[in-house]
Structures are given as C-alpha cells and as structure tokens.
Amino acid sequence: MLEFNVKPLPRHLNRILELLASYRNFIMPAFDLFKTAHKYGVFPNTKSYNILMRVFCLNGDLSIAYKLFNKMFERGVMPDVESYRILMQGLCRKSQVNRAVDLLEDMLNKEFVPDSLSYTTLLNSLCRKKKLREAYKLLCRMKVKRCNPDIVIYNTVILGFCREGRAMDAVKVLEDMPSNGVFA
C-alpha cells in the first residue's frame, strides 16, 4: 500500500490482525505488527486492541491482555463494553470469577453499561462455581441497572439452582420471568 502512496487505515490494520491472529503460529507476528503500526502512520483503535486481547485471553495469557487493556487508557484509546467482556471471559475461563466480578464493578464505576452477554458470562461462571447466591444477586442487580435479563440468562440461573438441588429457588426465578417480559 505504501509503495502506491496509499495511506493504510486502522480498518486495514484490524483486518490483517484478525487474519494473523486466527492462526496460532502468527499471534506474535500480529502483536509485532500492532506495536509497530504507528511507523506506517496507522494508530490502533479500540477494535485493534480487542482483537489482540481476545486472542491472548483465548490462549490463556491474561497478563498480556491486561497490559493491552491498560495501554488503551495510556494511549487515549477508550475501551468499550466488548473490551471489558473479553477480559471477563478470559478471567472466567481461568476460573477467576471473583476478578471478573471486580472487573464488572470497575466497568460500572466508569459508567459503562454491560450488555447481556457480559452478564451471561459472569452468571455462567458463578453457577459453575456453585456461587448461586452471588449469581442471584447479580441477576437482581441487572434489573436494577435496567439491563433486562433474557431467556438465556434466566435459564442459566435456573439450571444452576436445579443442579444443586435447589428447586424452590429455581421456581422463584422462573416465577420472576414474566415480570421482565420473558416467558418460558
């Protein structure tokens, strides 16, 4: 592109990062390109960071993902809901659900509005860890924060209660569904 006097754009960088990161052997070359892109007049945007954070989380390298997340703030690139969700998913995969919940708190303190997928990620992990009280509190908190739980979220919590033999709690959640416009 440069030899034809065409200035690359962040979307071009993102596409190349996506392609490289999709092959396990090319993760580090993708990271190297990301770190040197400014030499070519391309500055990574939120999506660029998210692409790399996701691939490092999927490969279990949360430390690099967190460094990238912190670099976003240093470089004046604003993370988005997806940035937080990527880290939450990475933490949950590593069974660090408490840190993921702390990240949700950080997200809310910075006035980001978590999407239902962010909540689903946390609720799944809380239920798998048998932290049903925390899962139920999070479900209730969703409603307070005006993020209406959907059928997937309700099913996650109901299944968590059922797996632990807490049928009455599951029924309580089931009965709450219609008040939020969700019907089984």
UniProtKB/TrEMBL annotation:
Which key words are in the record?
Repeat
The record's InterPro entries line, in alphabetical order, gives:
PPR_P_subfamily, PPR_rpt, TPR-like_helical_dom_sf
What PROSITE patterns does the entry give? PPR (PS51375)
Q: Which domain of life is it from?
A: Eukaryota
UniProt name for this protein: Pentacotripeptide-repeat region of PRORP domain-containing protein
This chain's source organism reads Gossypium darwinii
Gene3D superfamilies reported in the protein's UniProt record: Tetratricopeptide repeat domain
List, alphabetically, the Pfam families matched.
PPR_1, PPR_2
Report the family membership: Belongs to the PPR family. P subfamily.
Which residue ranges contain the repeat PPR? 45-79, 80-114, 115-149, 150-184
